[in-house]
């Protein structure tokens, strides 16, 4: 039997690259699609048959060519949308260029990706699992996060609709909602939030870590293991769900 083939969009990033590694460790074949060079990520994966392909998720035709009915990646069994970008700032001073950038990558790109998958599944109905990266910021808003939260709340709504539509093909869609992940994206956010509040980056990170009773940040691998479960055929009873990867309330 051939290995399960998973395409990880945004797989050159901090979280996407670890998702790719965990999938490969579990015997899956991984194609990493990103607008950043993913060749080093792919070279480090255990097993064989992995590939890196260039993709800009804001290019609808490019997404369709990669994943649509005549997918250039060939047959796939699961898709992960881990592309994303962040912006923090109060509503009163929103940078509208940043709004466009964040909403285009985090939400519109995901919709291009979902549409390409729908057309592929319509042409070739099968068991297939789609995992979208939302965030705990896609479930609960907080001051300073209006732009990012709008994209991540929107992504959960999109995922739920998509899951309903592709069920008839035997396919599924779910979202993961990680909390504060020990990652460069979170460090950049901590620096920006800290500057706004007159607090150091390290102190802000400590506040993020203390937001749950775990009193620590979540490790990227802890996120990747949940994504691997959702991408696998072990989770065929789950669709339309938002899975939180975070500690309990303090
Ligand atoms: N880091 C966290 O604490 C955290 C928490 C919750 C959710 N998330 C979400 O997890 C996902 C991954 O985050 P990360 O920390 O790995 O961020 P990251 O910046 O390390 O990775 C994001 C990846 O997306 C790619 N990307 C951006 N724009 C693209 C485009 N137009 N076309 C193709 N690829 C593009 C980047 O090249 C990068 O490889 C994001 O959706 C993020 O919002 C992150």
From TrEMBL:
Q: Which domain of life is it from?
A: Bacteria
Q: Which Gene3D superfamilies does UniProt cross-reference here? A: NAD(P)-binding Rossmann-like Domain
UniProt-listed InterPro entries: NAD(P)-bd_dom_sf (IPR036291), Sc_DH/Rdtase_CS (IPR020904), SDR_fam (IPR002347)
Its keywords, alphabetically, are: Oxidoreductase
Write down the CDD domains for this protein, in alphabetical order. Answer: SDR_c
Q: Which PANTHER family match?
A: DEHYDROGENASES, SHORT CHAIN (PTHR24321), ESTRADIOL 17-BETA-DEHYDROGENASE 8-RELATED (PTHR24321:SF8)
Family that this chain belongs to: Belongs to the short-chain dehydrogenases/reductases (SDR) family.
Name the record gives this protein? SDR family oxidoreductase
Which source organism?
A: Antiquaquibacter soli
């Amino acid at each position: 039997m051939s290995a399960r083939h998973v395409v990880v969009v945004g797989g050159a990033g901090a979280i996407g690259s670890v998702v790719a590694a965990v999938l490969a460790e579990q015997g899956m074949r991984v194609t990493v699609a990103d607008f950043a060079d993913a060749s080093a990520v792919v070279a480090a994966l255990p097993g064989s048959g992995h590939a890196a392909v260039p993709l800009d998720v804001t290019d609808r035709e490019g997404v369709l060519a990669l994943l649509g009915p005549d997918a250039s990646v060939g047959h796939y069994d699961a898709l992960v949308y881990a592309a994303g970008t962040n912006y923090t700032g109060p509503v009163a001073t929103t940078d509208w260029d940043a709004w466009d950038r964040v909403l285009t990558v985090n939400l519109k790109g995901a919709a291009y990706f979902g549409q390409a998958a729908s057309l592929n599944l319509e042409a070739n109905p099968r068991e297939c699992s789609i995992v979208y990266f939302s965030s705990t910021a896609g479930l609960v808003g907080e001051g300073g996060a209006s732009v990012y939260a709008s994209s991540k709340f929107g992504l959960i709504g999109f995922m739920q609709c998509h899951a309903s539509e592709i069920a008839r093909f035997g396919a599924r869609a779910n979202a993961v909602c990680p909390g504060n992940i020990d990652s460069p994206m979170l460090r950049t956010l901590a620096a920006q939030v800290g500057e706004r509040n007159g607090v150091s980056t390290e102190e802000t990170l400590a506040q993020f870590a203390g937001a749950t009773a775990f009193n620590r940040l979540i490790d990227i691998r802890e996120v990747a293991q949940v994504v691997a479960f959702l991408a696998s055929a072990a989770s065929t009873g789950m669709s339309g769900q938002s899975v939180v990867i975070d500690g309990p309330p303090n």
